[in-house]
Amino acid sequence: MAKTKKPDPRPVEPAGSLDEVRAAAQDCRRCDLWARATQTVFGAGAAHHAVMFVGEQPGDVEDRAGEPFVGPAGTLLREALTEAGFDRSDVYLTNAVKHFKWTPRGKKRLHEKPNRGEVLACRFWLEQEIAHIEPRAIVALGATAAQTVLGPSVRVLRDRGTPIASPLAPLVTLTVHPSSILRAPDAESRHAARRQFVADLRKIRKQL
Ligand code: SF4
């Protein structure tokens, strides 16, 4: 396993092209998560100056498909982006961690939260995505992404939709991860959480 270090908030220099970085990530062994995952799930979407959304890690569907945000949470995100007025051709979707971490439950593979060492190891790839894309905004989805992008002092529920000063992009902000909406205990709270999520996205879009 690669030795990890504290995150440096400054942008890094791009190495090679984004396609070369994506190809190199397929063979990444910087932490142990590659061993039980199907494949690296690198970011996808618009390339230059896109609005970049950063989630936590690929889920079961994404792990098999090799594409970010194509499972249930991704479907919710894509619908919410459209409702909030984002042009999907102007959006880049990625995750803080590029391999699916899971634990078996019967025949299912249940999501397991990546630990700090795994997040720090994988930040290398996120930094390269940011360096190549030079996003005009970065929106972290959920606590893992928020702390990866913005450090440990941010709080998702307190800071959602609020711009946070960062050298990484002209606008850096955060909101909840769409999977948290799917985990709401009943339909009423799920609808309320979804409305709030779309409201956050609208607020963020107006700041672009
Ligand atoms: S999770 Fe990230 S750092 Fe770990 S092996 Fe996969 S791509 Fe590499």
Structural account:
This protein has one domain (18-206): 3-Layer(aba) Sandwich (Uracil-DNA Glycosylase, subunit E). The chain starts with 17 loop residues before the first helix and ends with a helix. Helix 1 runs antiparallel to helix 4 (116-133). The mean pLDDT is 94. The longest helix has 20 residues, at 187-206. The protein is globular, with a radius of gyration of 16 Å. It has eight helices and seven strands; from the N terminus they run αββααβββαβααβαα. The strands form two sheets. A five-stranded mixed beta sheet has the order 1-3-2-6-7. A two-stranded antiparallel sheet has the order 4-5. It has 208 residues and is of the alpha/beta class. Iron/sulfur cluster (SF4) binds next to helix 4.
Beta strand count: 7
Query: What distance lies between the first and last C-alpha atoms, to the nearest angstrom?
Result: 39 Å
Count, helices: 8
The helix content is: 25-40%
Class from secondary-structure proportions: alpha/beta
CATH class: Alpha Beta
Order of helices and strands: HEEHHEEEHEHHEHH
Strand content: 5-15%
Indicate the radius of gyration in whole angstroms. Answer: 16 Å
Shape estimate: globular
Main β sheet profile: 5 strands, mixed
Mean pLDDT equals 94
Core attributes:
208 residues; alpha/beta; 8 helices; 7 strands; 39% helix; binds iron/sulfur cluster
SSE diagram, text form:
Blueprint: H1 18-25, E1 44-45, E2 51-55, H2 60-65, H3 72-83, E3 91-95, E4 102-105, E5 108-111, H4 116-133, E6 137-141, H5 142-150, H6 156-159, E7 171-175, H7 178-182, H8 187-206
Parallel strand pairs: 2-3, 2-6, 6-7
Antiparallel strand pairs: 1-3, 4-5
Helix pairs in contact: 1-4
The protein binds iron/sulfur cluster.
Residues 25, 28-31, 33-34, 40, 97-99, 118, 121-122, 125 line the site of iron/sulfur cluster.
